[in-house]
Amino acid sequence: MGENLAALCERLRYSQCYTDYWKNISLYFYHRNLLNEECFLTLIEILSSEMAEEVFKVLEYDIKDPKKSIAALEESFCRLEDMFSRRNSYWHKSPEVMSIVQEFGVNEEKYIDKFFEAAPLYLVLYQMFKDNYDTLYSRLESEKLYQRFGKRTLAFGDYYCISPIYDLVVSNVYRGKLYKREPKDLAGKIEYDYARDGCLLVRMWYSEIDYLYSIEFFIYTETKIIRVEYDKGGARLKGITLQTYEGELISSMGHALFYFGQVVTEMWFENYIYTDSIMKEGWEQHYRFPGRPDQDKEFLSARRQYVFEWDSDDLICGYWYKEWCGDGPLTKHWSQNILKLSDKKRKDTGKDAGRWRRPNYFRE
Fold first, then answer.
1. Measured between alpha carbons, how far is 311 from 87 in angstroms, rounded to an integer?
2. How far is residue 147's CA from residue 228's CA, in Å, rounded to a whole number?
3. Which residues contact 172 (CB under 8 A, 6 or more apart)?
4. 58, 98, 108 from 137: Cα distances, Å
5. pLDDT tens-digit readout, 98-145
6. Cα separation of 133 and 291, whole Å?
7. What 3-state DSSP class applies to 46?
8. Which distant-in-sequence residues (6+ apart) come within 8 Å of 133 by Cβ?
9. How far apart are CA 321 and CA 301, in angstroms?
10. What average pLDDT is seen over the chain?
11. Can you tell me the mean pLDDT for 7-32?
């Protein structure tokens, strides 16, 4: 049995550090079944990380009134529960979607529920970071030793896209290039700041010369990168990405957007399968949570399965794909022809390419 709220608040007032504070809060909500075991263990892994300890120990928390942190999470979980009660509403109202689901769909609700099961993890991370923009900026920028610059692109995260395969499977999207030297002005440019060991610390997008439109911080654990993005100089935490690595290779990605404050509005998951350190297969799916009952509509994308083909130079030359409605295939066959990659996109797809590995100044 978990402890009651009064006992928790009393214990939180004597927390010695930021990580203990949030471990206790996570345990409280885990005992109340508002965090499932996977979410809880992921949070404990993150908060116990020796690699992230230097960043976590400077983050701020309200030790005098811990009820604020708990109440904010209570509200977020209540909103998520309300959205959960309204899931599938769009499927039942749209004849077009219903016809597809009825013909091809198998267990599609299982995949909607997976997004709801994962969302509490991102809600806790949101509360952990939402008021720490200034502290994160000061801490990570103080570690900056190297800089690079590049163009703004359509890829999420630009040159260091949150997905290693997004630009490969979307025809009009490119990761762009890093400039060889610092540009004359920063309008429409991206600045990347790196630590002494080369790890990427900060990504900054300037929409005008002196106007920082959005900024993303990178926090490293032994198996994960936590990417926390704010807009308008820290006015709002807009998104959190979790990239998980097995050894040197990225194995999965989860991305959550918070358009309306402390509520998850969209999520995007990807998983990757390797053979002998070569990316062979990728899966992706997006979900938009139900918004206000009279306006924003729920949407679950088809699950897309990509199988990559490699050439004699150990570069990806193209891919096949198949779409699924839940566990039911939307088409009986794979795409009829392999979808070829351009020479430009193939160049950085080798098994040692940086796109599969943690972003680093010393690795292209």
1. 44
2. 19
3. 154
4. 11, 47, 41
5. 777 777 878 888 999 999 999 999 999 999 999 999 999 999 999 999
6. 27
7. helix
8. 230, 234, 237
9. 15
10. 90
11. 91
Separation CA 152–CA 148 (nearest Å)? 13
Task: Could you list the beta-strand ranges (E) of 182-331.
Answer: 189-194, 200-208, 211-220, 224-231, 236-246, 249-257, 266-275, 278-288, 299-300, 303-310, 316-325, 328-329
For 11, phi and psi rounded to 5 degrees? -70, -35
Q: By the 8 A CB rule, do 284 and 292 touch?
A: no
Site of tokens 């979307």: 170
Token pair 């995007």 is found at 268
Q: Give, in degrees to the nearest 5, the angle at Cα 296 between 36 and 290.
A: 20
Predicted pLDDT of residue 1: 47
What residues have CB less than 8 Å from 310, skipping those under 6 apart?
Answer: 278, 316, 317
What does DSSP assign to residue 165?
S
pTM confidence score:
0.94
Helix (H, G, I), strand (E, B) or coil at 203: strand
Cβ contacts of 58 within 8 Å, gap of 6 or more = 135, 139
* Residue 150, both tokens: 């590049």
The confidence score (pLDDT) of residue 103 equals 78
